[in-house]
Amino acid sequence: MENPVSVVPIAARPADPLNFFWFIPTHGDGSYLGSETQQRPPDFGYFKDVASAVDRLGFEGVLLPTGQNCVDSWITAAGLAAATERLKFLVALRPGVVSPSFAARQTAALDRQTNGRLLLNVVVGGNPTELAGDGVFLDHDERYAQAAEFLTIWRRLLEGETVDFDGRHYRVAGSRLDFPAAQQPHPPLYIGGSSDAGIELAAEHTELYLTWGEPVDAVAGKIERVRAAAAKRGRRMRFGIRLHFIVRETSDEAWAAADRLISRISDEQIAHAQSRLRALSDSVGQRRMLELHGGRRDKLEVAPNLWAGVGLVRGGAGTALVGDPATVAERLREYQAAGIDTVIGSGYPHLEESYRVAELLFPQLGIQRQTASYRPSVHNEFAVGAARLTAAS
């Protein structure tokens, strides 16, 4: 089942556990891709179920996606923060869609409200049709030039400056932020982007660079490009990866679950989705995702245990790590050896798969779950023989 794909050799097993995030499915959820069977609508009550579960299970935070087909990430994060204790919220900062001054005020307010649990995901956007609906009519590289001006103003405001700025895309005079954020100088900035323009923006303005789940050698190459661009500016970056997970107790069970996930997708649906994604997106990262499998069902394992079945019909992150816990953990250590320290995971459906990842994979990765220890004092179906019963009892 495996393809002969080269990977970066592991010199030594990293000692530090990965930072592991999960995903809030604000565009809907379900058990079968391409099917309305067992579908779960984007309902806040369900978002809260997922967030509460991952908060208890020991995940560090959650990513909330953005776009016309997603419930707003800022409003959702504000609601979920009240229902959780430790969870961090990675929400979208959208240059061009809102003004940098207004975004700075939103940032400070939500960061204070969550007691410093806010993270920002800079999303420049890769769908010109959707961007036009938001009033953005710039080409690919010009959007990144606009984002650079946006982040310059935004960062200066969060750092306490009164800002005068006269650029190609923004002009502000006497802009200031009267109420600072809880995190200083500002909540950390994350960004993804495989183009030259995206990498330059990441190196100049952000703290953590995100990649979608490509084979390890491809990820390592992107990491080196970003590191070199950051080093030219005297900066150092951290790195994360966005992946789906299908983890089961055995490898056979995991691959059967992967097959089942796409079992109701028709060839017509695949052809339509692939055509649509190629036509509507100018994202370099999206093109790289599509090239991994070319829309073919027989070419889905694009590297050992890296399965591209999700990308047959889903835009954005389209790959999953599939296998038993020890194998999936080993694959993650390969990414970690290449420089990854943060994983943003997901799985269908997201509530149940968060438990599988926490219960099966976390012990392999040395991630401590936040659940309380439980040692029953009586004999029951989960602790057969655990209790010492007297003869009289």
Distance between the termini: 55 Å
Task: Record the strand order, biggest sheet.
Answer: 1-4-5-6-9-10-11-15
CATH class of the domain at 19-93 and 207-365: Alpha Beta
Q: Helix segment count?
A: 12
At the fold tier of CATH, the topology name of the domain at 19-93 and 207-365 is TIM Barrel
| Beta-strand content | 15-25%
State the fourth-level CATH superfamily of the domain at 19-93 and 207-365.
Luciferase-like domain
| Biggest sheet character | 8 strands, parallel, barrel
EC number: 1.14.14.5
Domain Luciferase-like: 19-341
Function: Catalyzes the desulfonation of aliphatic sulfonates.
Catalytic activity: an alkanesulfonate + FMNH2 + O2 = an aldehyde + FMN + sulfite + H2O + 2 H(+)
Supply the key terms.
8-stranded parallel beta barrel; two-stranded antiparallel sheet; disordered C terminus; TIM Barrel; 393 residues; alpha/beta
Describe the structure.
The protein has twelve helices and 15 strands. The chain is α/β, with parallel strands linked by helices. The chain has a domain at 19-93 and 207-365: Luciferase-like domain (TIM Barrel, Alpha-Beta Barrel), CATH 3.20.20.30. The strands form three sheets. Strands 1-4-5-6-9-10-11-15 form an eight-stranded parallel barrel, surrounded by eight helices. The chain has a two-stranded antiparallel sheet with strand order 2-3. A two-stranded antiparallel ribbon has the order 7-8. Helix 1 runs parallel beside helix 12, helix 5 (140-158) packs parallel to helix 6 and helix 6 (196-205) packs across helix 7 (216-231). The chain is globular, with a radius of gyration of 22 Å.
